[in-house]
Design brief:
4 copies of one chain form a homotetramer. The first copy, chain A, is of the alpha+beta class. Chain A has a single domain, classed as L-fuculose-1-phosphate Aldolase (3-Layer(aba) Sandwich). The first copy, chain A, has 5 helices and 10 strands; from the N terminus they run αββββαβαβββαββα. In chain A, strand 3 and strand 4 form a beta hairpin. Chain A is globular, with a radius of gyration of 16 Å. Chain A starts with 9 loop residues before the first helix and ends in a 5-residue tail after the last helix. Chains A and B meet through helix 3 of A and helix 5 of B. Chains A, B, C, D: It catalyses: 5-(methylsulfanyl)-D-ribulose 1-phosphate = 5-methylsulfanyl-2,3-dioxopentyl phosphate + H2O.
């Protein structure tokens, strides 16, 4: 299965997002109907396929997808999550081809413990998000939550570390991005692994 | 699969409850033969389909279901759990269309740590049970356990926070409800997620 | 599938034990090739089907079973584990129809923390092993490990609480029994749940 | 399925490694694209089949494998991980027929807590790696991480306890070996179980 997003139509994108969602749901990272995923279908104008709101993320079908514009407004399909606007903003800001938003216990727990950001260094796993394994300190930013996606987007833009394709939203969850749905998945798995490690409390 | 309960007959309800039970069992929330699920089939008179007692909750068939009345007594089918009476009471009290009772480690652990109730606020996940994500403090009540379902029902009625579709029974587990089996599932996943978060000990 | 053991032949018993083993292996309770399961096929003389030694417990076939006598010696089939002798002793001592031996992290961790035995009371989950949910204190015994099955059996016999169908072997794992493979499974799930609860450190 | 490696051709080896990888990935031990597995196909000259770099370890096909020599350089197939050189060195040094490298949270957490090595004794589970269950103290070595496989190999050679088929690489993960892919799997499961036990903090 290619995840070269530029060649996907909306239903193909829906199939990819449904499969990715089912995977994350099986990890317990999309409990209830939480979280949403997106993939960029065109750059100019910016168009993203975003998972439809209110569904069980382990039971999505290829049709449970909405086409949204650069403001996250629906172009076709059902009702997007309000958070679609943040997906579009992340895609525009970072050039990402896919965005993952999940609610993991570890991300919210670490956001509480380290509200100023989670400092990471000297971990081989950092290579999984493109950061050297030795001698480089990066910060996984923690930003305050908001229901206003413009405010949340401003905070993300101000806080992000360009070396890290992820941000923790305090009391909320995790935004992670990558070139493709598969790379975004791998980045998500890596960031969550790093958070689970920090949650053991064995760091300095 | 529609979970519009008003149109389900008893065997269809049994099939829905068997699928929901298998899901919760796969999470480890129904170890042994613990827990039980119900769905309201009629309001007047109140009739609920409740999972049969004593079975492995990962192996239920559509026939492993009992029709009970407003007191939890069997109208047809096999032997209901004594707890069927509490399911019926929750349905009558709250107007819920489905009730989930599971034994999770986190709910009993938190009931020990916070016997006066578990205070929650400023968490996006609260939206999954209909509570605002900001500035509202709700309490997930913890009530003392009893083998007398009238006593337990009285405690639940006295303690419940109308904004929270769930109660922790100390030393026992979790009761959660919703409009339909699917909504009750989502509420259960959300409440358990909140409990697992609090169990990390990272809160204030 | 009936688990009325008295009617099973050796291969049927092997099929039941393979299925039960695969279940426990999926929980991570039989890592490596650890643990073994048995079912009583006759009482007089005592004959048990025991899982064969050295196999991956997630990959057993119905043929991976050995018929042993009251001393745990092979009557037919392959090589039994040395621990088959303890299975036979538990079956003779308690009248159990099935014995489960698993290596769970929680049982070894709790055996370290509470070497004198794990005291349990006022937990609804205790009903899953036949103990009242209120006002009765039982002890899950912890016995010292040994490679001599006679010594280990003597310790088990001396330490066991007749109200609890389980014993923790320190630095080793858990022995649990029941009337049938299914009841032994449920007892195992219940005891492990209780140990995981105690491991949270929220008790008195 | 035989895992007698000497009779496997490269594609058969790829099929075995894909199945083993999918298993470890399902445990969460190969998040992102982390980790790699190998099996020795010939001793003289030393040739190993190693999983290809950059793939999702839950989605490997039999073709996602590279044949490497004693230096870890590709003889045929795609691009090997740089770590293939360490696999080859472990195989040459220990005589192992298969090597597993996984990134587990427990191994990195314990490497932080016990940078001088993890001392283990009096645990039945030690028998799963060939160490007596009583009275023998072994050390699971923790070595500093490096991107230079010669340096890392020197550290592994200097630090290893010949009684333990495993080494923790600090800030990185776990190397484990065995006679065959299946034995290496069992050794990995046993070592990870021991690490998860130590992570509970219940030891002396």
């Amino acid at each position: 299965m290619s995840t070269d997003v530029s060649t996907l139509d909306l239903e193909e994108a829906g199939a990819v997002l449904a499969a990715e969602s089912a995977r994350f749901a099986s990890f317990g990272w999309m409990r209830g109907t939480s979280g949403n995923l997106s993939v960029v279908l065109s750059r100019d104008p910016l168009r993203l396929a975003v998972t439809a709101s209110g569904h069980d993320k382990g039971e999505l079908t290829p049709a449970d997808v909405v086409l949204v514009d650069e403001r996250g407004d629906a172009v076709s399909g059902g009702r997007p999550s309000a958070e679609a606007a943040l997906h579009a903003r992340v895609a525009a800001l970072t050039g990402a081809g896919a965005v993952v938003h999940v609610h993991t216990v570890a991300s919210v727990a670490l956001g509480r413990r380290s509200p100023g950001g989670i400092v990471l260094s000297d971990l081989e796993m950092l290579k999984g998000v493109g950061v050297p394994a030795h001698g480089v300190e990066v910060t996984l930013p923690v930003i305050a939550n908001s229901q206003d996606m413009t405010v949340l987007g401003d905070r993300l833009e101000a806080a992000r570390d360009v070396r890290m394709p992820a941000v923790v939203v305090a009391g909320h969850g995790l935004y992670v991005w990558g070139d493709s749905p598969r790379q975004a998945r791998h980045h998500t798995e890596v960031v969550e692994w790093l958070l689970e490690l920090e949650l053991t409390g064995t760091g300095r």
